[in-house]
Each structure stands twice: as C-alpha cells, then as structure tokens.
C-alpha cells in the first residue's frame, strides 16, 4: 500500500489537492480530523488536556473549546510542547489504525495523509512520497485575510508560527505550486496522480 504524505503551510491549498486526489480514487486520511476525533467529548485526550490546561477548556456540551485553548497556547512554546505531548501520540496511533484499515479494505489503495505538521511531528514515518503544497507567504496571508477573516497581524502570526517554507520544501519529493489559479493547482494534482506509479517506483529503487 503506497503511503503518501501531503503537507503544506496554512492556506497553501493542501486540502484542495487532497480533494482532487480523492476524486481520482486516493484514500485521504485527514490529520486535522483525527485531532478533532481523538479529543472528542469524554476522550482520554480531552481529559488530559483539561488536567493540564484547566477545566474551563471544556465547553458546557462536553466538547473542547478549541478557540479558547488555541488562544491560551498560541505563542507560548512551552504550552504548545505540553499540548503536543498529549495530542501527538494519540494522533499517531489513530492514523496508524486508519492506514491499516485502508490497506485491509484494499491492499492496492493509495493512501494520502493530509498532515500540516509533517516536518514538526511525522517526518520519520515510512512515507513512499512526500508532496508539498507551496504558495508564497504573501499569497497565503492574502487568503487568510480574504477567505478566513483574519487580521493582517493574525495572519502573519499564524504563518510565522509554522516551520519556514525552506524547511518544508527541503523535504519534498514533489512540489505542487499553489500560488496561482485554482485550475492550475487542480491540473498539477491531476498530473501528480498520473505520475504516482512512476514516482513511487523511483523512490523505492533508491
């Protein structure tokens, strides 16, 4: 089962590429969704987060106050490290379970792990291929302001909090340039899908 990592900075168009690959038949495992799932109401992860950061991070309906927790840890490297120590192991375990389930359902399935924090947390996993969605920081900043309603300062802070583009690009087997029009990104995703058998064979032969 080919296992492909798809990563990119915030507002890089990574999810657009994932959706296009899914249309071609790839099985998409979404790291952000796994994070939401493992810290759902009543979960051990949510209990551990509350024990570490205070019970007020749990809303009245039992769910995590994601915005409240985010504002509490954002910009605090020690707090982020403590949060990651709780969440990352659970995400790793659940993603492994989903990879294995996909392989069990179809041994030939191409599984794409849509993972923002590849460089930070999952680089050592046995990826057949690493695909990086890349757009210049100024383009991503414009998207965060125009499409997500962030202020210019908040958008800049979000981008600055992630690993530098250079570090992410250095990991790439394939770079999809997402700085242009949507159709150009989709065209590159289509080309990537057609090229996957060759790219995977080349990677395995190294």
From TrEMBL:
Reaction equation(s) it catalyzes: 3'-dephospho-CoA + ATP = ADP + CoA + H(+)
GO biological process: coenzyme A biosynthetic process
Pathway annotation from the record: Cofactor biosynthesis; coenzyme A biosynthesis; CoA from (R)-pantothenate: step 5/5
Gene3D superfamilies membership: P-loop containing nucleotide triphosphate hydrolases
Top EC class for this record: transferase
Keyword Nucleotide-binding: yes
EC number assigned by the record: 2.7.1.24
Residues the record lists as binding ATP: 11-16
Keywords, sorted A to Z: ATP-binding, Coenzyme A biosynthesis, Cytoplasm, Kinase, Nucleotide-binding, Transferase
InterPro entries attached to this UniProt entry: Depp_CoAkinase, P-loop_NTPase
One Pfam family, short name: CoaE
UniProt-annotated location(s): Cytoplasm
Keyword Kinase among UniProt keywords: yes
Superkingdom of the organism of origin: Bacteria
Family: Belongs to the CoaE family.
NCBIfam families linked to this entry: dephospho-CoA kinase, PRK03333.1
Record protein name field: Dephospho-CoA kinase
Native source species: Microbacterium pygmaeum
